[in-house]
Amino acid sequence: MVQSYRRHCHLSKNIASHIGGVKSVEVKNRSIFYKRAASHLIRRIDGLSIWFGINPPAIDASDMLLHISDTPGTLYPYLRRALRRLRPAYIVHTGDFADDIKLERRRGLLGAYKKKIKEFVSILEEGKYGAILVAGNHDHAPTLLSEISCDTVQLWTSPGRFSIGQFIFCAGHSSESVAGSDAQYCLFGHNMDRRSGEDEHGKMFLNGLEAMYLIHLQSGEVTAIPYPPGTEKARLQKRRAGI
Fold first, then answer.
1. Are residues 104 and 202 in the same domain?
2. DSSP state of 116
3. Quick one: 30 and 80 in the same domain?
4. Domain membership flag for residue 59
5. How many Cα atoms occupy the beta-carbon half-sphere of 135 within 13 Å?
6. Full DSSP string of 121-174
């Protein structure tokens, strides 16, 4: 009787151990399933955020230069998210940093411009990005200089050229200001008189009104990232005036 009871107990323990092992495997499998499902959902949500212009593509831009131009204040939240996501090595902005405020025509808007510029500069200084800012026709250099406190941000009041690695760049507010340069990449904005593209000499012209451009500093490859919906509408006043 005692031996039979012991065998029964031993058998019960084996069954319990087996059941426990099965449950452990089931829990582990469920955990893997939920993790995969969550990962798939996150990727899907991220894809939708890119599709609707909430976020830029998930690109590692740590060895790239980012070119942007003519940024209205409505773009700032997107720009902040984009920089946090892309983390570019350098940024070049070719003017009109608060493009929805037309200072050239309405000097009385200087107070509103100062508020916008304060926010714009804070975005650049948040990540301590190496940045070149080329003042445009709707910019106010004294205001910009008073707001810039980070030594990694340079303000240019006229077109200029610079080199990074094997590539030479020229940056100016308009296409005319960079047309005569011998640089391999000419960065500009201001109007649509010249579209982005390569000329017959192999020189690359990039109009920052059309898109945000990433330039790979090793290969020279250019990647265009569309601006979010509503950006051009915020610039529309300028386009109508042809300025």
1. yes
2. H
3. no
4. no
5. 17
6. HHHHHHTT-EEEEE--TT--HHHHHHH---TTEEEESS-EEEEETTEEEEE-SS
- Residues 48, 104, single domain; the answer is no
Residues 6+ apart with CB under 8 A from 140: 103, 110, 113, 117
Judgement on whether residues 136 and 17 belong to the same structural domain of the protein: no
Query: Does 120 lie in the same domain as 228?
Result: yes
113: phi then psi, degrees, rounded to nearest 5: -65, -45
Q: Spell out the per-residue pLDDT of the chain, length 243, in tens.
A: 445 545 555 545 565 565 556 566 666 666 665 566 555 555 565 566 566 667 788 899 999 999 999 999 999 999 999 999 999 999 999 999 999 999 988 889 999 999 999 999 999 999 889 999 999 999 999 999 999 999 999 999 999 999 999 999 999 999 999 999 999 999 999 999 999 999 999 999 999 999 999 999 999 999 999 999 999 998 876 444 434
CB contact burial 129-147 (16+ within 10 A = b; e otherwise): bbbbbbbbebbbeebbeeb
Total count of domains within the chain: 2
Q: Does residue 58 sit within a domain?
A: no
* Euclidean distance between CA atoms 109 and 39, whole angstroms: 47
The whole domain housing 190 covers 64-241
- Asked if 92 and 132 touch (Cβ cutoff 8 Å), the reply is yes
Same domain (yes/no): 15, 72 = no
143 is written with which tokens? 């205001």
d(CA 16, CA 23): 10
Q: 23 and 130 share a domain?
A: no
